[in-house]
């Protein structure tokens, strides 16, 4: 009780903020705390000279004073404190923006103190029934979304109207009216729609195999469906080029015997093939988790009512998969819209929005206005896809798991469907064996298509120069960044899902819109917006490892969030209510009730987040520097320099490392199958 009373005291959090003000710099150190000189650190301290930071920290004293000299009810006191804290927060941000002050470490401590004080104020008002864990989580989520989604999005929209420092309100209309922009827009939408449908279809097929058909051979479907996800998309594109490109052995056969043109791959066809291979595993992971959560009693009830297997699948199982199917299409379509690297390798003259944005930023002529305009269009398209998906699913219920125990097992698929799934999987496995065989074999050849002499020179270039040169620095840093980002992604994804699905409160629709915005921002747009938002005051993060981690978290947030939402949509709310009625806190309910039941979906989300962070390129390629090198940007630089052998060799190493991590993680944690209860094993 004393501990709770201490944390509920505003004086305690004011003391924490004061300690941070004394010990940590209030303005940013551009070379970091470790590399800054003592003079630079002293100059950055807020107490060293009179400045606005004195007002920032001093304003905290207004909160307890307002309560102390007020005779209002607890609700009115809490409301007064909360509004005052919001005003302080706004004052800090606005004054730092106007004065162009880059915020330092002590401001982070100040923000934590403000969040804690705001939590106490809202608890006094009995918001969320006074549940401080939920309140603090909600405040943290809103702040994170505002600063790392909404704020950068505003930055990219504002940049459309500026030509350098000159305000030109009609500039974006001039850019959009150009004929090639209209063609690029049509190209992007056609590719995204095609890949969204194909990847979701293949993902469903593989999920059906691993959950409803396979027994001892389930690992085959998993390995060959997960394999592309551990590979950067453009490395898959390079593998497709080795097979089907101008010098590919399949193309040579097609040209010689079937009269194909040796340029048939480049353009729409090549992008669709490569993206389908690369993005189907993401669809598979979403749909597999949903299929595992479908309770077998639903199917048995259908059979007892004399429905056949086809009727059961299309009228019972398939409708229950609507949320997961919609989520799959949304994630895949946005990933396709955001990826510029595959069109860079296989697009030829077929330009898309993302690749054009890359050329505007990384090309010979820097054009932030055009990049911002195309980025805004990309964001609008992503939001439109989300709205269509939301309207399709609607507000229907998809609950299949309740608090009642049941000892059942899943039923077989219809025979014809079962054989079709196995045939398609067999073709997929064969194609992937050839594709990845080409990638690994190509990494050992001197020059693919010209000189097939086996050599180790590409690997020597990468890993034979010590840990400070070659590929080692980028590989080590990528693992560290991804390991830091994945748990944060899973945590915030679960909290967002739990609060939006399980809680009713004022402003819920606004939070849902903000999470929608978080979900719909493509990586390319995020990368450009982060450059515009965090390259100067008040939040200067460019060139730091933190901006890479934040980019990974916000880029992969949809994975954790949508997986948790899909799982929570099938868990009866009475399970939570039973825990709360037994005096269990929200924190204990999430840890001991929700997490175990969502284990398959969240495990997939955690692994996917880590792997996607390791292989992401769309956003972070704009954010990396010489001090924050990552694997994908290193490989992409090799591709741009024409060093395809080195790029393929690094891609091969990345594939092996990622597969080893996934298989090890799967072996350690194991799987949770709702369809098989412990009671059945005991009988």
From TrEMBL:
Transmembrane segments: 12-33, 53-70, 82-99, 105-123, 135-160, 180-211, 223-244, 264-291, 312-334, 374-393, 419-441, 479-501, 513-531, 537-554, 601-624, 644-669
Family matches, as Pfam families: BPD_transp_1
CC annotations in GO: plasma membrane
Domain ABC transmembrane type-1: 185-389, 475-665
InterPro entries: MetI-like, MetI-like_sf
GO BP term, pick one: transmembrane transport
PROSITE patterns found in the cross-reference section: ABC_TM1
Subcellular location: Cell membrane
Primary location recorded for the protein, binned into one broad class: membrane
Top-rank taxon: Bacteria
Topology within the bilayer: Multi-pass membrane protein
UniProt KW keywords: Cell membrane, Membrane, Transmembrane, Transmembrane helix, Transport
Coiled-coil regions listed in the entry: none
Listed PANTHER family: FERRIC TRANSPORT SYSTEM PERMEASE PROTEIN FBPB 1-RELATED, MOLYBDENUM TRANSPORT SYSTEM PERMEASE PROTEIN MODB
UniProt similarity note: Belongs to the binding-protein-dependent transport system permease family.
Protein name listed in UniProt: Iron ABC transporter permease
Phylogenetic classification of the source organism: Bacteria, Pseudomonadati, Pseudomonadota, Gammaproteobacteria, Pasteurellales
